[in-house]
Fold:
Amino acid sequence: MNDNRNKLINSFKSSPFYTIKWDNYFEIYEKIFKKLETRKITIVEIGVGNGGSLFMWKSFFKENSRIIGIELNPEAKRLEKHGFEIFIGDQTDKDFWKKFYKEVGDIDILLDDGGHKNIQQVTSVMESIDHINDSGMIIIEDTHTSFMKKKGFKNPSKYSFINFCNLIIESLHRRNPMVEKRNNIFSNKVHSVEFFDSMVVINISSKLSEKSKLLENNIDKRVYLTDYRHNGYFIKTIKKFRSFFGNIEENSLFYKCIRKIFHRNPLFSFHEKNQLKKYFNKVKK
Structure:
């Protein structure tokens, strides 16, 4: 264990109130908080329970960092006597979030350890994405619930949080001009998304989220090569023809006829799809 991980675990263990975290989270925290631990920040945790994790963040982050908790249980207000700001509200309530950010302002870290349901996780991200400072992040814990049917989570689902993340990934790729889709707020603000066991980290940076530009070098030496990427089974086919008929020149009529017949042939796209299906099924096991 390195110093940061030790510091995090010691902060966790020394918290005066009860809390629980999966053990793999500490290594992830160590990685993602490295750039923020020496800064005075504002961190908001959804789902504070007894308040044990709030003391952990207070111990870990720079002194005078702003530690804010969001909780459904009004009894959590008692934690304010320890210097925390506590807001009582429902993370699925859009009006709650509007009032919250109007009072609190923009923040550096949103950590969702709330109810872990799809509607709770998705709403928290959607209503917060425009209120995270550059170099900040949204952390969603316990994302394994996207794959849990029991305990009321009703997943896998088309509307699971992980499927929502796939839309964010698609939005990131809109920055490439070849995709030819208009940027949205995720394209403009989310630099990257990191996936871990039971945790997703959405890294925010509008500065690093500009449209991609194509760079070229040695333009005076540019050579245009034949594009073979879509040839698929044509390459295998021409090899078989050559094994029977000998060398077939690429500029010959015979070669061009074979390519026209077998290039992007739907029959062979079926074989590609079947191979992909096997790989996908293998990962699903």
